[in-house]
Amino acid sequence: MNQEFTMAQSSKRVAIIGGGVAGSTVALFLAKQGVDVTLFDKNKSLVSGPPICHLHAGGNLYREISQQQCLDLLKQSIDFVRFFPSSVNVRPTVIAVPKVDDGEPFALLPRLKVLREAYRDLINEDADNNVLGSPDDYFYEYDYEQLKALSQRDCPKVPSSLDEWLIPFAKYTDLEQLKFPIYVVQEYGLSLFRVASSVQLWTEQLDNLHVRTGVVVDDIEPLESHYNVALDNGEVGTFDFVINACGFRTGSIDDKLEIKRQRLVEFKAAYVTKWESHQEEKWPEVIFHGKRGTPQGMAQLTPYPGGYFQLHGMTKEITLFDKGLVGSTTKTSQPELPQSLINKIDKGWPLDVQVARSKSAIRHISQFVPDFSTAEPAGKPLYGAQQIPGNEASLRTADVSFEGERYARLEIVKASSALIAAKKIMSKWFVQQPQTMVHTYSLDPARVQEVAMNIAKERGYPESLAIAY
């Protein structure tokens, strides 16, 4: 095995319950530093949780969050790219404010300037943080006249400049519906399937990372110096530390341990569509800001190769759901979603519901991109529930919390927060500061994509969602 890993100063055993993006990322991080980790997940493969499509390198999708949350997301996103370099789809994101929205574009500018300088500072601290291009290019603004001029140009198959990336947007968006300027930000895309592939390939290289898929943790018994973890097949394992990485079901483990914790859980979905007549174009990601939960909620158009687009619409007919945001109670740390939503998670979607919501998403985007009305649903939705610690539904930066000396729970809202959680765990339980990982083994991007395409196919999604854009 071609590797050299910096070893932690401990032979303690860690159990991680839940192999979503949070649990898998923390497992990899700890294992790469020599910690003995066992990762349990009830699914057949790892990283099969809620949809991931966007690298929130600055949080510009969320006008309502604080500047500090945006700065945290920027730093965490850079760390995530460095850890999973083959997972990124390198293309810009357009941030547009429709005329029907109460917001003003220039309100975004002060934050963008702060983020640009913060990115510059991060590169000055460590040149390897330069993963989003030059800080000078972090964002640009375009006015109406610039976009009208771009709309007269032909769409290139391979954009070689920011102007060229914007040609499809300028050509097919109804610019009369927008306020100006629009902003173009270096917030890239993320491939859920290439993250899953990277995790799978890395686990094959680490002898001290033991992956147990297709098993359910039935019970956890806390003892004075360790935990007994019992599986549904009758096995019992002994571990020095337990990390609860159960995503929206994190409260169920807290309940087993009789630990009270306040949290929200929200069910959301995104929809896969194909725009057949535009499959040769390379689009940027596009965000049309809007007020969450109203008919004019934010619309998000995320491009993939071959004319596939993933759609979000922050309305209750598209991405959000009636009674889809629930909280814990004094009796249980596990918020209870309606059974209809649990059935979607555990058993899948009725075809008529997925088609109806996909068509609603297409109509929502078509308000601003009229020709998108010719797009068609292209498969089952990407969906799942996420936890939000506390009671603030708009919170987007959270990582890990600890109970006692041997129990931690991952509470990430965005995938990029998983690494800061891993570093905090490493620092608290094993060493004062996480050591630098030194290894000679790296993943081949072509192999990552090949495995990712197989994962997408196995899960019933178009292979295009796994292909680098």
Automatic annotation (TrEMBL):
Q: Does the keyword tRNA-binding apply?
A: no
UniProt keyword annotations, A-Z: Oxidoreductase
Q: Any idea which GO molecular function terms this record carries?
A: oxidoreductase activity
Where does the FAD dependent oxidoreductase domain start and stop, copy by copy? 13-46
What's the short name of a Pfam family annotated to this entry? DAO
Q: Which organism was this protein described from?
A: Vibrio maritimus
Which named protein is this?
FAD dependent oxidoreductase domain-containing protein
Keyword Oxidoreductase, does the record have it?
yes
Q: Which GO terms describe its cellular component?
A: cytoplasm
Q: Which InterPro entries match?
A: FAD-dep_OxRdtase (IPR006076), FAD/NAD-bd_sf (IPR036188)
Q: Where is the signal peptide?
A: none
